[in-house]
Every structure is written in structure tokens, then in C-alpha cells.
Automatic annotation (TrEMBL):
Keywords: DNA-binding, Repressor
Domain HTH tetR-type: 16-76
Tagged with keyword Repressor: yes
InterPro entries noted in UniProt: EthR_C (IPR049397), Homeodomain-like_sf (IPR009057), HTH-type_Tx_Regulator (IPR050624), HTH_TetR (IPR001647), Tet_transcr_reg_TetR-rel_C_sf (IPR036271)
Organism: Bacillus seohaeanensis
Gene3D superfamilies named in the record: Homeodomain-like (1.10.10.60), Tetracycline Repressor, domain 2 (1.10.357.10)
DNA-binding region extent: 39-58
Protein name as it appears in the record: TetR/AcrR family transcriptional regulator
DNA-binding recorded as keyword: yes
SUPFAM superfamilies (UniProt xref): Homeodomain-like, Tetracyclin repressor-like, C-terminal domain
PANTHER family: ACREF/ENVCD OPERON REPRESSOR-RELATED (PTHR43479), TETR-FAMILY TRANSCRIPTIONAL REGULATOR (PTHR43479:SF7)
Superkingdom: Bacteria
Length: 205
């Protein structure tokens, strides 16, 4: 059983608070400067801690950012993990459309940090590798929902669930980045409708 913060020793509570301070400072620094221009020195200064102390928790700014990115993406994963047990194609359509809306809306709501994520993926091998693992986690979760639909005679059984899941994820990610970067010439409602229509018409019976 995990102890609550109040049950931890003062030393452990202080350690947790120090780590939290570094992450908070990191988030602020990345949002202010972007990934490339942010430095570990800026983060440490903002966290009001020492270099030696900071390096106990994180080896570099990439590791700090990866932790922040994982926390952010866990919010997206909560959307992916929403209960998916439809009994009809119509129910599946409604659930899928809801997930797409939540996914894309969350990306827009977190636009500033998502822009830093996009930047970091392009310049940090560590962040890029972590993004690959995050992407694969989403794809596998989508495949689980597809297999459920196939096993319950809602979706076409001859289609490879993992392959369809990969295509579905990439379609959502593409529009996600367009919305985050304000590059889309389409409204979010039009994107949601198009994605859901194309996906369900191709996969479901």
C-alpha cells in the first residue's frame, strides 16, 4: 500500500516537493522559451534549488520534459480508455465520435504545451523515442476496441485490427497537429465528422 504524503517522513515529503517544484519550473520554462532555447540552468533557477539537488531527480532537461509530456499524454490516454462496449454500429459511431472530439479538443486546450512537444520530437532523440512508445500504446488500445467490435459481429472480421488501429491513430494525430498549429482550413466539427464517418463506414458492417 502506498503511503499518503502526510504519512511520509519529512525528508521524503521534502523530496517529493522538490521534484514537483522542478517539474513546475520546467513546464513554465518550456512554455516561455520553447524546447530548444530552454536550459537546465533556467529551470533550476526558477525552481529555486541547487544543481546538485536537481540532478538527483533528472539527468537533463530532456528527462524533465519527457516526464511533463507523459503527464500530459496520460490525459489523452484517459480518453482512449473510455469504456467501449457498443451493441450496435450506431452506438459505436456515437462512442467513437465522442472520443475523437475529446481527443482533438484536449489537444487544442493544451495547444501551447503541445507545440513544445512537437518541437521537442523533432530535435531530441530521447523525446522522439518516448513519443514512439506513447504512440504504440495508443495504437494497441485502439486495436483492443476494434477486436471487441469484430468479436461482437459489429466490424469486418477479415481486417487486421492492428493495421486499422495504426491508420486510425495516424489520421487523428495528423489533424491534431494541424489544429494545434492553427494550420487546418477545416473546423474541428468538420474534422470530427469526416474522421468518424470514414472510419466507421470502412470498418463497421
Amino acid at each position: 500500500m502506498t503511503n499518503s504524503p502526510n504519512e511520509l517522513s519529512p525528508r521524503k515529503q521534502q523530496a517529493m516537493q522538490t521534484r514537483k517544484n522542478i517539474l513546475t519550473a520546467g513546464r513554465e520554462t518550456f512554455l516561455e522559451n520553447g524546447f530548444q532555447k530552454a536550459t537546465i540552468a533556467q529551470i533550476i533557477k526558477k525552481a529555486n534549488t541547487g544543481y546538485g539537488t536537481a540532478y538527483v531527480y533528472f539527468k537533463n532537461k530532456d528527462e524533465i520534459f519527457i516526464t511533463l509530456m507523459e503527464d500530459l499524454m496520460n490525459q489523452f490516454y484517459e480518453v482512449a480508455e473510455l469504456s467501449f462496449t457498443p451493441n450496435t454500429k450506431e452506438e459505436a459511431y456515437t462512442l467513437i465520435k465522442k472520443q475523437v472530439r475529446l481527443f482533438l479538443t484536449l489537444a487544442v486546450d493544451q495547444r501551447n504545451l503541445m507545440k513544445v512537444v512537437k518541437e521537442a520530437i523533432g530535435v531530441s532523440p530521447e523525446v522522439d523515442q518516448k513519443w514512439y512508445k506513447i504512440r504504440e500504446r495508443f495504437i494497441e488500445r485502439i486495436a483492443i476496441d476494434i477486436r471487441y467490435a469484430q468479436e461482437n459481429a459489429l466490424a469486418k472480421k477479415h481486417l487486421d485490427a492492428s493495421l486499422i488501429a495504426r491508420g486510425w491513430y495516424y489520421a487523428n494525430e495528423m489533424f491534431m497537429w494541424e489544429l494545434v498549429n492553427n494550420e487546418s482550413k477545416y473546423s474541428i466539427d468538420d474534422i470530427i465528422l469526416s474522421l468518424t464517418e470514414n472510419y466507421t463506414s470502412g470498418l463497421y458492417k
